Amino acid sequence: MNNLKLSIGMLVYNHEKYIAQAIESILMQKVNFKYEVLIYEDCSTDKSREIIEKYRMLHPDIIKVNYNKENLGMKQNVKNLRLRLKGEYTAALEGDDYWLDEHKLQKQVDFLDKNQDYSMVAHNVIIVDQNGTKLDGTFKNEIYPVKKEGDFLLSDFENGHMFSQTASILCRNNFNRLSESLKENYFNCIANGDKKSQLLNLLYGKAKFLPDFMSAHRVVFNEGDSWTAKTYNKNINLFNYESLISLEDFAYLINKTKLNMDNAKKNVIISALIYVVKNNNKINKDILKNIWKIEKNKVLFFRALIGLFVISFNKIKK
Prior knowledge:
Blueprint: E1 4-12, H1 19-27, E2 34-41, H2 48-58, E3 63-67, H3 74-82, E4 89-92, E5 98-99, H4 104-114, E6 118-128, H5 138-143, E7 150-152, H6 154-158, E8 170-172, H7 180-188, H8 193-202, E9 206-218, H9 227-231, H10 237-255, H11 262-278, H12 282-294, H13 299-317
Helix pairs in contact: 10-11, 10-12, 11-12, 11-13
């Protein structure tokens, strides 16, 4: 793979309705560099595999497919795929998302080529439902609010902010800079893949956000294997809290960076408190109790209570 500029990773499981649109949105890209598309298909029970194979046969020089012999699940597939991405830059596109702008990749690669102090570049996204209908209003703005052009720094991540939706990000292949043991530490970090990937790249440079809308993220609540479908309306605050601790440990292992995730932790505690206030059942109370046991800095809980009071007061004012 001499002069391979970009590796694009795609995980597919039961994406029959969407996979053709996703692949077509890659193939429409107008670029002046060499790229590959690595697809891991995880024994779908629909016709995803048949659709992918048609594209592989038409574009064998670009599309490389791994057809699992048995269903391995998200975690193992992410690991297997991540280890195969060898390009100078990497990007990811889930089988139900798609890109909108035929110049997206070229714009992002050009930016990173010209700005060596940046590790990532992303852009605005539109949110669509399972039928491809654009979602607007409060829900969309809470997930991925429209942003202006600017920099995203490690300090933003520490405060609990996410850089952007995964399909919008193109980054340097900093993962391949890691030793074999650090790669295992990366996989053992329990945080979501997008969070630890963004943290890893922020440990090596800044991130640039472009104002263009160049990709679509599909949000499906009632079907599929996506994180959204699995966690919608569920109390996952204990997992989120443990993830923040795991991210702190991972950052220190990489280059001795000491993250201060206190604000992010406070917001998780506020969320856990809200669950208890709304439904004082055993599950919600146990989650809050476990967070209390884990966190040594109990001051965060008093800050969270103040934050909850402010939120309640502002709602009353409205």
